[in-house]
Specification:
By secondary structure, the protein is of the alpha+beta class. The chain has one domain: Alpha-Beta Plaits (2-Layer Sandwich). The chain has 2 helices and 5 strands, in the order E-H-E-E-H-E-E.
């Protein structure tokens, strides 16, 4: 992975399932030029891997707090992570 790229595994909790949070995340990530994935977790949270520049990842970490209409985010927990190879796209996974 390029030294100019940053990666975060993020766990978002609150009312984040059943409100199109994954679709909203994908759209925001694509707008910011991020790659990675987003998925629902069994415990009701949403997890995401975001990979991009310092500015784009910082912006996305802030946007996670907004979420789509109908969401109510109670926590955004980013963990810096290393990835061997940056994903090519941003996708919704299961």
């Amino acid at each position: 992975m390029s030294p100019d790229l940053f990666a975060f595994h993020v766990r978002i909790t609150g009312k984040v399932q059943g409100v199109s949070y994954r679709v909203w995340t994908r759209d925001q990530a694509l707008e910011l030029g991020l790659t990675g994935w987003v998925r629902n977790e069994r415990d009701g949270s949403v997890s995401a891997l975001i990979v991009g520049t310092s500015k784009s990842t910082s912006t996305m970490l802030e946007r996670f707090w907004d979420g789509p209409t109908g969401s109510d985010v109670s926590a955004v927990d980013p963990q810096a992570t290393a990835v061997d190879r940056a994903p090519e796209h941003f996708v919704i996974t299961r």
